[in-house]
Amino acid sequence: MRQTLAIAAILTTAVAIASVAAGEPATQRHSLEEAVAATTRTPANIARDKYRHPVETLAFFGVKPGDTVVEIWPGGGWYTEILAPLTNAKGTLYAATPWPDGAKGIQALQAKDAANFGKVKLAAFPVTAADQPKVPDGTADVVLTFRNVHNWRMGYQRGGQDYSGEAFKQMYAMLKPGGILGIEDHRLPESASDERELKSGYLKVSTVRRLAEQAGFKYVGASEVNANPKDSADWPNGVWTLPPTYRLKDVDRAKYEAIGESDRMTLRFRKP
Fold it and tell me: How far apart are alpha carbons 201 and 156 in whole angstroms?
């Protein structure tokens, strides 16, 4: 009898554990859906969800409400509007920006809505001086950067000097062992000339993988959630020809609007 009860208890525990494990992705996705549906999001940003697939993208990166998340170069805060409500109750969100001017977009969000964005912590990225605020080493569960690696490769704010290797090393330092680096960026075909990475805004997946792996990251996998087969990645003014920038303004605007935002790689890496 005791043996029967013991076996029953073990089976019950196993089923409970399996049920929790099976429920975790659903719970995570529900949290992401709630954050994306937040009423504090800007209507113009919501209109771009069809191109950026925030629920699916963040689910692929495994972002959870209790995580310490670092958003690298959030700009005006398109993803911050989602990540802040997601992490407000249980987690921590850092906005890591070019210091100090890059923080102005997030500071504007905080001034407008302190209740929802007041907890966002500001940090410098890349850190270039000892007195700049930084994300403490080994504290982040997830580091995310959306459409920024091409800027480092092109030497944006560094006089054209490529500093992507330095950027990846600093992101690696932020993460806990086992932490995740999520990258989304404009994708250049592997057959294209390497020179196009220096001026078009597009990057090869192989380049991003090389930079991440040289910094110590392990490649986990890729998602095609942000793919756009209409994008040839060969436009007169680079990726900025397409929406939302429309660098050619009204020239062939309908054509580029029909193409939509760029074809993008979505890559996940792990710190061992």
Answer: 11
Strand duo 264-270 + 175-186: pairing: antiparallel
Q: Give me the mean pLDDT over the 77-89 stretch.
A: 97
**Of all residues in the chain, what percent carry a pLDDT higher than 70?**
91
Q: What is the mean pLDDT of residues 111-136?
A: 96
Strand order in the sheet with 92-97: 121-124, 92-97, 68-72, 140-146, 175-186, 264-270, 218-223
196: which DSSP letter?
G
Nearest to 264 by CA among 236, 235, 222: 222
Whether the per-residue pLDDT at 9 is higher than 50: the answer is no
For the chain, how many helices (H) and strands (E)?
Answer: 11, 7
DSSP 8-state secondary structure symbol assigned to residue 20: H
- Ordered DSSP codes for 36-56: HT-TTS-HHHHTTHHHH-HHH
Give the pLDDT confidence score for residue 115 in this predicted structure: 94
Q: If you average pLDDT over every residue of the chain, what do you get?
A: 92
Listed in sequence order, the residues at least 6 apart from 153 whose beta carbon sits closer than 8 Å to its beta carbon are 162, 164, 197, 198, 203, 207
C-alpha 145: how far from chain center = 4
Q: Which pairs with CB-CB distance under 8 Å and at least 24 residues apart come from 136-139?
A: 136/174, 137/173, 137/174, 138/173, 138/174, 138/175, 138/176, 138/177, 139/68, 139/174, 139/176
Dihedral of CA atoms 151, 211, 228, 255 in degrees, nearest 10, equals 30
